[in-house]
Specification:
- The structure is a single chain.
- The chain has a single domain, classed as Alpha-Beta Barrel (TIM Barrel), CATH 3.20.20.
- Helix 3 crosses helix 4 and helix 4 packs parallel to helix 5.
- Helix content is 47%, strand content 15%.
- It is of the alpha/beta class.
- The chain is built from ten helices and eight strands.
- It has an eight-stranded parallel sheet.
Length: 278
């Protein structure tokens, strides 16, 4: 049975051992997402500085593929607007972020990664920074439309109105709404279906079960950060396999699991989920 974690990081704690734990728990497929520049000890001053992050992350994903089937998601975390802005100014920060997303798009075109990461701050910022952040996210949508890939979004806490605004932004550049993935999503499957965006449900508490009771149009994630200062945050690497088994115990069959872990993944990301894993 294929079990996919839609959003995980490998950083400075368990590293690849986290994927061993994921595999031993029954996990088979994972989308690995790069972190902020500060996690790599970098202070970017130009778009090309992000290439070091992307290349390092892609090399890590290549190693990960010896353990499970791993896909690379690359891009610019929306909090970079603050890290960069404090050093180079916010207007310049937004330009650097946009150009870095262009570079990520080229790597996706080359087949070295499968999706973009973008979004807007989850914390309070000024009106100007919020405007610039939306400009950056809109540019990510433009890149994704041109390249033909999905975008995983890190955003403010869910609200229907906020997500509708994002959906309309995707419409404005011709990016299909189902290609826009709300990372760290609550289990509001019916609302996301109405919006057209795709939820990547965080496996907190009974979220997976609640989502399943609303339908099968979602994916599951842990947002495992792999930070030695926050071991186990946000959720441990074994969590998605455990939640999948919980769904089976509650009467959801393997066809249902196949839908959320294979069919939805293939549709959103345009990848082929292989039956045979390492």
């Amino acid at each position: 049975m294929i079990i996919t974690d839609d959003h995980m990081h490998i950083y400075n704690h368990l590293k690849l051992k986290a994927l061993e734990q994921f595999k031993n728990a029954g996990g088979t497929h994972v989308f690995l997402v790069n972190l902020l520049s500060k996690h790599y000890g970098l202070k970017p001053n130009k778009p090309e500085d992000f290439l070091e992050i992307f290349e390092k992350h892609i090399r890590l994903v290549e190693k990960a593929n010896k353990i499970v089937r791993a896909f690379a998601v690359i891009g610019v975390h929306p909090a970079e607007i603050t890290l960069l802005g404090d050093r180079v100014g916010f207007e310049r920060a937004a330009e650097i972020m946009k150009s870095a997303l262009d570079l990520a798009g080229r790597l996706i075109e080359e087949g070295r990664a499968v999706a973009l990461k973008s979004g807007r701050p989850h914390y309070k910022v000024s009106k100007d920074v919020w405007r610039l952040s939306n400009d950056v996210m809109l540019h990510a949508f433009e890149v994704a439309k041109d390249v033909g890939c999905a975008v995983q979004l890190h955003t403010e806490s869910y609200s229907y109105e906020g997500m509708r605004e994002i959906a309309e932004m995707a419409d404005s550049v011709g990016l299909k709404r189902f290609r826009v993935v709300k990372h760290f999503s609550p289990p509001k499957v019916k609302e996301f279906e109405d919006l057209g965006l795709f939820p990547s449900v965080i496996c907190l508490n009974d979220y997976a079960l609640t989502a399943a009771k609303e339908g099968d149009r979602f994916m599951l994630e842990t947002d495992y950060i792999d930070d030695r200062n926050r071991p186990g945050a946000v959720l441990g690497p074994r969590t998605v396999p455990r939640k999948v088994r919980e769904l089976l115990r509650h009467g959801f069959d393997e066809d249902f699991i196949y839908k959320i872990c294979v069919e939805n993944v293939e549709r959103v990301y345009g990848v082929e989920v292989e039956e045979i894993c390492p």
